[in-house]
TrEMBL record:
Family: Belongs to the thiolase-like superfamily. FabH family.
Catalytic reaction list: malonyl-[ACP] + acetyl-CoA + H(+) = 3-oxobutanoyl-[ACP] + CO2 + CoA
Enzyme Commission designation: 2.3.1.180
All residue ranges annotated as the Beta-ketoacyl-[acyl-carrier-protein] synthase III N-terminal domain in the record: 111-195
Pathway(s) this gene product operates in, as recorded in its UniProt entry: Lipid metabolism; fatty acid biosynthesis
Oligomeric and partner information: Homodimer.
Protein known as: Beta-ketoacyl-[acyl-carrier-protein] synthase III
Length: 340
């Protein structure tokens, strides 16, 4: 175990929400030089959900949050903290507060956390620290992104990958002294960053010169579309993610044989398969839904988690190895037990 705190955590609810708009590979054939076979063979993706121009991240995240609260049998007013893992807030100042208002979580502190596709894993560990300290009892963690807003639709290397969506989980503190039969659901974790590789995957800001009437020249903020070196990201992921999972398992005092499900960030099916192979885990124990949704960044793990909980694959008491990886570069693995 990584802590001796008198408090542990339980993951007690999940929810997800996706926009209705669907863009499949056949439609992409009309936009760039590609094919359904090329995309599906190299990525595993066949379609993705896209938010329409009138849609935004806040209502999508709020819907996922409400579904997670319903499963947890809690009201929004029961929440003490809301963490929003996102790289694409509606407001550059953050969207967690808007979500707090939308769901009526009047007692909750709300803040954004940005770690790109690793955001949900980083957020899960962050939420656990507030609960383990005894300061908060109920925390809502949301992973949500609308990366389609920041895609260059003429770049076939990136426009085929990304989709939009939101997923959420509710975490609750457990007093291990009052409940001696209970145990902490956060068994172990490993979080890492390598800023020297930041250039490999970017959604970069820039300042455009804007002269003012008095002759002063200021910089007007803007962002460039997503750029990515796909080969470098693949090499990074298949090397670093298994290492992080192994270290998290070591801290959890668990073996890979004790993992019921491997749930990685849904970036590429070849990455998921390669990581499972390096860990010696059967592919039947991996969870994947990127065929239907593509890469939804910080939302990908909680969306896949929610689907697997609701269709009965993930059962209470089962051990999950979760891992996110992406821009930063950042990566992290978390070993958790699902359920109360």
């Amino acid at each position: 175990m990584q802590t001796r705190s008198p408090f542990g955590i339980a993951l007690i609810g999940s929810g997800s929400a996706l926009p209705d708009g669907i863009l499949d590979n056949l439609a992409l054939e009309q936009l760039v030089e590609t094919s359904d076979e090329w995309i599906s063979t190299r990525t595993g993706i066949r379609q993705r959900r896209l938010a329409q121009p009138q849609e935004s991240l806040t209502p999508l995240a709020a819907k996922a949050a409400q579904r997670a609260l319903a499963m947890a049998d809690l009201q929004a007013a029961d929440l003490d903290l809301i963490l929003l893992a996102t790289s694409t807030p509606d407001d550059l100042f953050g969207s967690a507060g808007a979500i707090q208002g939308a769901i009526g979580a009047s007692h909750a502190v709300a803040m954004d956390l940005t770690a790109a596709c690793s955001g949900f894993a980083f957020g899960l560990v962050t939420a656990a620290q507030f609960l383990r300290s005894g300061v908060y009892r109920n925390v809502l963690l949301i992973g949500a992104d609308v990366l389609s807003r920041w895609v260059n639709w003429n770049d076939r290397g990136t426009c085929i990958l990304f989709g939009d969506g939101a997923g959420a989980v509710v975490l609750q503190a457990i007093d291990l002294q009052e409940q001696p039969a209970a145990s902490d659901a956060l068994l172990g974790f490993e979080l890492r960053s390598d800023g020297s590789m930041n250039h490999v995957l970017n959604l970069a800001g820039e300042a455009i010169e804007q002269p003012l009437k008095n002759g002063t020249v200021v910089g007007q903020g803007n962002f460039q579309p997503i750029t990515m070196n796909g080969q470098e990201v693949y090499r990074f992921a298949v090397k670093r993610v298994p290492e992080a999972i192994e270290k998290a398992l070591h801290r959890a005092e668990r073996s890979i044989e004790q993992v019921d499900w491997l749930l990685l960030h849904q970036a590429n099916q070849r990455i998921i398969d390669a990581v499972a192979d390096r860990l010696g885990l059967p592919h039947e124990k991996t969870i994947s839904n990127l065929e239907r949704y593509g890469n939804t960044s910080a939302a990908s793990i909680p969306i896949a988690l929610d689907e697997a909980v609701r269709d009965g694959r993930i059962q209470p008491g089962q051990t999950l190895a979760l891992a996110g990886f992406g821009a930063g570069l950042s990566w992290g693995a978390v070993i958790v037990r699902w359920g109360r």
